[in-house]
Every structure is written in structure tokens, then in C-alpha cells.
Amino acid sequence: MRTPAAWVPLSDQEVVRHAVMGRDSAYRELIRRYQRPVFSLIYRMVRDRELAEDLAQETFVKVLNAIESYRPEYKFSSWIFKIANNAAIDHLRKRSLDTLSLDGSPHAQTADAVEATTLQIGDNRESALDEVTSRELGAQIEEAIGNLRPEYRSCILLRHVDGRPYEEIAEILDLPLGTVKTYIHRARNELRILLADMHDE
Amino acid sequence: MNAPEPHHLTADELDAILDGTIVERASVHVAGCTVCRTMVELDRRVVDALAILPPVDPAPGFSPRVMARVSIHSPPVQVTVRALGARRRVVVGAALVGAAVAGGFAWATSNPAEALAWAEPALQGIGQTLWTSLQAAAANMVEQPWFDGTRDLLAAPARAIPVIGAAAALYAAALVGLRRLLAEPVPDARW
Ligand SMILES: [Zn+2]
User: Fold this and answer.
1) Is residue B156 part of a domain?
2) Could you tell me if B66 and A61 are in contact, meaning their C-beta atoms sit under 8 angstroms apart?
3) Does the N terminus or the C terminus of chain A have fewer Cβ atoms within 10 A?
């Protein structure tokens, strides 16, 4: 049996191959690799620790019990994040916790948003935002993320918290690339406005 | 805004600036446009704040809790064409050897005198080999350092007696067996 350190140089695909061969230490390695990012994503989506714990567990159980159906031409991370995101979104929809977005054309360009945002963020708000320390901003941004609609939340978390490329986000969310970009820009616009509002209060 | 601004940053240009892969037109535009500059600065603050959000860990014992609900996949036994070929060769080989042994036995039973004449020198050779092997094993046991464990075993009389007894019985049985094989066949009563 491999020691935990022996798994480190192996790619996700290789670890999955060992899991498919029935090695339980490979299952544990996949959990070790993904429990933190998967839990972080779900937690920031649902903003409830206990619930996030349940949904993260569901995600891993679902993925690991279907490990033989994994297709190595896709990234393992895309697969597990897709399941995790779906679990969170389904839950949010069921509980009707969606927040209404400032919806518009799905392909609106940032120029429109620039105008809109600039109208909403006056000079005073802008300077107020400048005074905030990055730590305070972190706490406020967590709160602001919770006010985004679920699709925007997934996009912004995967892009700017996890640093995933647009293409992978499109794969995870089953959305066209253009839609992913639009969602991310809109989410950023909303975060800007929400943060400015927080400072205005 | 006094005049319409058809050349404000596009979403892709804004991304390029935030990613540090600046598009030339974009940077020139940002330098001269307060609206876009403000946008870039605010967006950068938002992006930076998102990037440093700390990861969140599940409660301790997450992995065992998951593992308790996972059934480890048992891979199907895959019989490849190659393995199938190898298995077939083993079966054919075993059948051939079996047939040869059975044929030899049948021939030996129907021609006992001839079979014994063939076997006698070989059996005498076996007897000689058995004796030489025994001597070699005994010499090894006494001289070679890697038999320390065995010598220790034989050093205590309580353990040595049954071991030596068993070896002697084995040797006697082998001798008796050889004698019987070398004995003249008893003539058939009907002859
Ligand atoms: Zn501009």
C-alpha cells in the first residue's frame, strides 16, 4: 500500500486509475486533494457550515461511488466541481434562496456596465472603498458574494477565488464560454456596487 | 459623460488588463478615460480581495465519514486475448504430458521385463544421487554459517531426536522403495 506521500507525484487521472483498481488509499487521496476546495466552494455558495458539510459529503460519495464511469479525457477537478456546484445550486433553488439579479441582455458589454456602475458609485463611495483594509474588504466581500444569484456566485468563486480558467468554468457549469464571461463581469459589477453600498450605509 | 463613448473597454479588454495581459488599445484608452480607469481600479480591488479569501476546511474526520459511505470498486476480472492464449497453451501442454505419462505406464505394464531393463540403471543412479545429496546436506549443515538456526534447532536433544528420527525414517523408506522397484517381477500365475 502507498504512503500518503507516495501519491503526491501522481496526477488525478493516475490516482483515479488506482481507485478503479479497487485501492481504497486512492479514494482517500482524492478526498485529501479535493476536500478543501470543494468544501470552500460549497460553503461560500450556501453560507451554512453544517449544510455545506452535508453537501460536500454527498458530492464525494456520488463521485467516488461512480469512479469507474470517470472519463480521463476530462479533468477530474471539473467533474467533482460540477457535482459540487450542482448540489449547491439545487439546494439553493429548492430553498428559494436565490437573490434576484440585475438582469439584462446575456451578452451585454462592459461599456454599458461601466456607465451604470459609475452612475451608482459616486466619488464619495469610491473614496470610501479606498479606505477599507483588505481584511475588512474580505469579510465584506464574503457577505456580498452571498447576495449574488447562484450562477454568478459559482462563476465568480471558480474564477477569482479558485483561479480556474474560463474554459474549465464553462465545462463545470455546462455553459457557453460567452455566458460564463458575461456572468463573471456582471458578478464583478454587482460586487462593486454591493461593496460601495456597504460603505455608503 | 458628455459624449457617447463607443470605445470604452470591452469585457475582454478589462479582463486582459486585470490579468496583466494588457491590450495596447485598452491601456491607451484607460490612460485617457476616467470612467474606465475607475472601473479598472475598483475591479482590481474586488479581484484582489477575492483572490485572498482563505480556503475553508470541513470538520475533522471528513474523510472517514465519506469513506464509510463509499463502496470500493472491485475491478472485473479481465480475460485478455493474450491471457486466454496462454491459458490454452498450458492446458494443451498438460494434456500432452498426461497422455505421455499414461502411454508410458500402459506400455510398462504390458512389457514389465523390458521396462525394468530400461529403468534399472536410472534407479541405481537415483540411489547414488540420494546418498550423495544426503552427505552434501549433512556437510553443509555442519560447516555453513547460514545454517546456524538449524544447528541451534538440532543442538537441543529434545528437538534433535524427532528430527533425526524423521530423517532416518525417510531415508529407510526411500531405500525400501528403491529395493522394491529393483526386485525381479513376480511371474504371472497363468504363465
Ligand atoms: Zn472609457
Assistant:
1) no
2) yes
3) C
